[in-house]
Design goal:
CATH topology of the largest domain: Transferase(Phosphotransferase), domain 1
CATH architecture of the largest domain: Orthogonal Bundle
Structural class: alpha+beta
Distance between the termini: 31 Å
Number of helices: 14
Helix content: 25-40%
Oligomer: single chain
Order of helices and strands: EEHHHHHEEEHEEEHHEEHHHHHH
CATH class of the largest domain: Mainly Alpha
Shape: globular
Length: 469
Amino acid sequence: MSFLFKKRRPKEEHHSVAVIGQPTNVNHDIHVSVDAEGNLAGLPSSWLRQIGTQITKDEQANNPMAVRQAVKYYNYSMKKQEKGEIKHILTEKIIAEESKEIDQYMNSKDAHKSKDSGLDDQSPEPLYVNTARGHIVPTFPQNKLAPKIPPKNPPSETPQIEEVVLLRRSLSGDKSYLTELRKLCNSNDPSEFYLRSDRDIGSGAFGVVFIATDLHTGNSVAIKDIDMTKQVKKELLLREIAIMKNFKHKNLVNFLDAFVVYEDHLWVVMELLEGGPLTDVVTETVMTEIQIAAVCFEVLQAIEYLHSTGTIHRDIKSDNVLLGMDGTVKVTDFGFCAYVTGNEQRETMAGTPYWMAPEVVTRKKYGKKVDIWSLGIMIVEMLDGQPPYLDKSPLRALYLIAANGRPAIERWEELSATLKDFIDVCLEVDVDKRASADELLKHEFLERRAELMRLTPLIRAAKRKLHKA
């Protein structure tokens, strides 16, 4: 297989992202009340039916604000997920824009319709199915993309005039977009650099992720094939390629290269870590405190780096921490460099609910410290094998996070004083009192960390148990 590219590879230009300032209060007024019969007022009736028995009548009466915040965020996130967009680099500006979108969605007709069936407000709304590790089955097709023969949408036999006009405008824009995209990508034939294997490690609405061999180094890499025809915000891909080319850190799954293929596909080449996700280790083995400290120290270095560039991860969890067989720890799933090691059903909303900070749901003082909260929840994962509320539906989990704040930790009394203090400053509901990544890197708990090679026996044991060896 060969590809012809005429443009020369341009010199890289320096691109930067505005650094995040202090957390900004982007909360908006929400009006909700309880009527004389103890029922919520102010929500679409389809949402009330959706709540059903997931949130009790007493909880609805005692904390109606949390109910509304949870169900609004849940429905907005699931509606957005149906579009099948890839994840983009998150900044404080984008967070503020998202908050506005959520409020606009609340007042839109879509808020009064079923997410997945298209039924109106008079029809009961079916719930999404909760799957392994608490993730919801998406409604968009999960067909695997065959990169060698990309699917093409046949033109309609009898197109309407308005559709033809929109198509012409789209093509004009795409030509300019592709010109700019090629300036940022490698203009050479990707087959001269990488040999594709038959092994796919992820698939979804965006396309597939497959394993390839770097012909110059012999190392394995992961290549994400993005179908650009399915991406609404194409301009963000341009911005993010420019940013990611300058992102280099030992604790990030780094961007290596990019190619335009078949005019409408983008191949993003990334590092591959053969140890797999931290999830395998936390679910199949018991980690000691010094091993937990080792993982935390590495993840915090990645978080501190992202925050210094103005980027918020917003989905720190064991699934998004990948391991090398030597114990290397790297964070993935930020921007379009996200790739899935098995099942895209894990990615269900803008930040998985069980690891989500309260301010994500309530939209109060929402900033970079959401990543610190998620790190605290990931520590609970490393202790117990799963995050709090995993046995609850995502909607109920969102309510409990908004209503209760910090979750109870079952093994609390068994933990050392330094680990307790470390968790305390991670899971502080008051954002101003929650520690920053820089502060946590100096915490006493991390001074006890094990060498990274001490993680290798856990990785091997998990692989054997899961038959991945």
